Amino acid sequence: MRIAVVGATGMVGEVMLQVLAERNFPISELILVASERSVGKEIEFNGKKYKVVGLQTAVDMKADIALFSAGGQTSLDWAPKFAAAGTTVIDNSSAWRMDPTKKLVVPEINASELTKEDKIIANPNCSTIQMVLALAPLHRKYNIKRIIVSTYQSITGTGVKAVQQFENECVGIEGDMVYKYKINRNCIPQCDSFEDNGYTKEEMKLVKETKKILSDDSIKVTATAVRVPVVGGHSEAVNVEFSNDFDVNEVRNILHHTDGVVVQDNLDTFTYPMPRYAEGKDEVFVGRIRRDESQPNTLNMWIVADNLRKGAATNTIQIAEYLVENGLV
Ligand code: 2RA
């Protein structure tokens, strides 16, 4: 496969290259793409050095698949050009996610919706992916009515400059401020900008993307997204109300048998998911599974995943693997 990585010098781009190598993705030719200022930069992949090229050069090279993580405007401007050249684009930005003509895919849930005609495929937001992967099998079994989610999101979700701000603060260096406030020893109840309804774009992604991926607009979702000084991954406290009652042990068993999910839930051994220990892994970890005793048919759980891996790079590459394995590219 001729593979282009668009945004190859960014945080997610670097993880995509790492995951491509780890999973031994079938690459006959690798095209590394970044902004004009990075053209000519050399990046090593699998022991070989590759020179970064610009976007138009990459379009002209007619990759089979282009893995995008280069921001929404670049996706809006360039994904159609890659698609017109015959390349299938899998995009990590929010640009195409809610477009009714584009598929929004978590492979374990809805890869079967994909066809050869899908030339621009949207990778969901990281905080959405980890939540819906755990909730999808429970929705099928018990029918979700409402989700209340509070997220505790890693600074890696903002990018390398946010990590630099955190590291500077830890050693007392006054450097560039990515966030409006200090992040060390703090929690910032704002991920991305605010919408007119008082929610952030991040919170509304959780609301809208969940309905699309689970193909059920009747599901009510409300979210509070918080930035925390953590690097390993995103954590989420999820309260979910079902139409039907459930047995907590049956819920654990369903999750235990769900592809991509690992249940870490044993209070006797203080076993529960934590971002420090999820870092670098591809699974979604679920624990603190317990009935919400304040209302019927309602469950609490704690969901953790590495936002750069299953939340972005790995999910993207799993979509690409599905396309290849099913002859869709
Ligand atoms: C964040 N999910 O965590 C967003 C984008 N990666 O900031």
From TrEMBL:
SMART domains xrefs: Semialdhyde_dh
Instruction: Outline the extent of the Semialdehyde dehydrogenase NAD-binding domain.
Output: 2-117
GO molecular-function terms, A-Z: aspartate-semialdehyde dehydrogenase activity; NAD binding; NADP binding; protein dimerization activity
Residue positions annotated to bind substrate are 153, 227
The UniProt keyword set, sorted, is: Amino-acid biosynthesis, Diaminopimelate biosynthesis, Lysine biosynthesis, Methionine biosynthesis, NADP, Oxidoreductase, Threonine biosynthesis
Its annotated function is as follows: Catalyzes the NADPH-dependent formation of L-aspartate-semialdehyde (L-ASA) by the reductive dephosphorylation of L-aspartyl-4-phosphate.
Listed name of the protein:
Aspartate-semialdehyde dehydrogenase
The primary gene name is asd
